[in-house]
Design goal:
Blueprint: H1 13-39, E1 52-55, E2 57-72, E3 75-80, E4 85-90, E5 101-105, E6 108-114, H2 130-141, H3 155-167, E7 181-184, E8 192-193, E9 202-203, E10 208-213, E11 218-223, H4 225-228, E12 236-241, E13 244-255, E14 261-266, E15 286-305, E16 310-311, E17 317-320, E18 326-328, E19 330-335, E20 338-342, E21 349-353
Parallel strand pairs: 6-7
Antiparallel strand pairs: 1-21, 2-11, 2-15, 3-10, 4-5, 4-9, 5-6, 8-10, 11-14, 12-13, 12-15, 13-14, 15-20, 16-17, 17-18, 19-20
Length: 383
């Protein structure tokens, strides 16, 4: 075996020189890149102010509170049961109109009739009086009787009663038993039945049977003291009932013993909130409806952050445009840090903070380029 094949033999001198050169070059390259990272990029001046701009967009602002509205409507008894027997059925008294059946006793239907005079006796041929006239008006409204309500129970009225009885599946006697009809001051109306008028109940006669609203309806907003502090005096309230929407305004307020605040609600014209639709209210003395209290009226238009709006010494609101010019604006509404203004167009750009025109990065007032004096504070358009 020759020396060239001995294990552990040193590299030739040329090979050692090449290896050393590679190491030197690698170290030099590392030093170069380290220098690039350390000193290559200039450090930003901490005093430099950068411009922050905002694209004007269309937005809708507003604010409302969802609160319950309490409706109170007294009910009074307008009819007592006059038919002894068993209650065989009870009708839905949600909204009762002329001639509607309220309940049945031994299958005899008790019907509602418009009138203010209680039906206090049986009615038949030869009777006369205001109660007869009420019955005649009901028969006319239902299409069974022609002519006028003269208050005299004659043959025409008897025939009209028979026709009505046949349509109800009753024996056509042509007379009206005591208790078959109940006078209700206003129809249609939402009526309540007495506690004794339930299916299968045994009635002796004389039980309070039918209750009607008095027509005295009041709406109120009852809130906590902290909630009351959020509601401006000119706030409007939208009251929702089924598919109806009623507008109300705040009236007198009073404090409750529990610390609550009660605002009376009226229609904008001072009338009752439900207007001519009060008959649609549930037949309960106290009802809770959903209400929306408008804190900030809803408005739509070009919008900017509230921080972009400032005021000058004359109280006029303005914004700084991206090109360095001022633009006078009018704040139409604001909420949640967004202001809807007139005087701008969607797509324009405004300065919110920073900039070379003296607007500091914290959003404070810029220097007035016309006189060098600082402009006055924020626009006060916060919501």
């Amino acid at each position: 075996m020759t020396d060239s094949h001995r294990p552990g033999r040193r590299l030739p001198r040329v090979s050692r020189w090449i290896a050393g050169t590679v190491v030197v070059l690698a170290l030099a390259g590392a030093a170069y890149w380290a220098g690039r990272v350390t000193v290559g990029s200039p450090v930003a001046d901490p005093g430099e102010v950068r411009t922050v701009t905002y694209d004007v967009v269309e937005a809708t602002v507003g604010r409302a509170l969802s609160l319950n509205v309490t409706v109170e409507q007294p009910f009074v008894v307008v009819g007592y049961n006059g038919l002894p027997g068993t209650v065989t059925s009870v009708a839905d008294t949600g909204e009762v109109d002329e001639g509607d059946v309220l309940y049945t006793v031994d299958t005899v239907p008790v019907r509602a009739v418009t009138g203010t005079v209680p039906f206090w006796r049986p009615l038949g041929p030869g009777d006369d009086g205001d109660d007869v006239a009420q019955l005649q008006r009901a028969l006319m409204d239902l299409g069974y009787l022609a002519g006028e309500a003269d208050g005299r129970f004659g043959s025409g009225t008897a025939e009209a009663v028979r026709a009505w009885q046949r349509d109800l599946g009753m024996e056509p006697t042509g007379t009206v038993r005591l208790g078959e009809v109940v006078a209700v001051p206003v129809l249609p109306a939402r009526l309540k039945l007495g506690e004794a008028i339930v299916p299968a109940a045994r009635l002796a006669g004389g039980e309070p049977a039918v209750y009607a609203p008095t027509g005295e309806v009041s709406f109120a907003l009852v809130v906590s003291d902290s909630q009351a502090g959020l509601i401006p005096p000119d706030a409007t309230v939208t009251v929702e009932h089924e598919d109806r929407r009623w507008t109300a305004v705040l009236g007198e307020s009073e404090f409750g013993e529990d610390g609550s605040v009660r605002f009376a609600l009226t229609a904008p014209d001072g009338g009752v909130v439900c207007g001519d639709e009060c008959a649609s209210l549930p037949a309960e003395e106290r009802v809770s409806l959903r209400g929306q209290v408008t804190i900030v009226p809803e408005v739509t238009g070009p919008s900017v952050p509230v921080g972009a709006v400032r005021t000058g010494p004359d109280g006029q609101a303005w914004v700084l445009m991206a090109d360095g010019t001022r633009r006078t604006v009018t704040v139409l509404g604001s909420s949640g840090g967004v202001a809807v203004v007139s005087g701008l167009t969607v797509g324009e750009r405004v300065v919110v903070t920073g900039g070379a025109d003296g607007v500091p990065a914290d959003g404070g007032p810029p220097e007035d380029p016309t006189d060098g004096s600082p402009a006055e504070g924020d626009a006060g358009a916060g919501g």
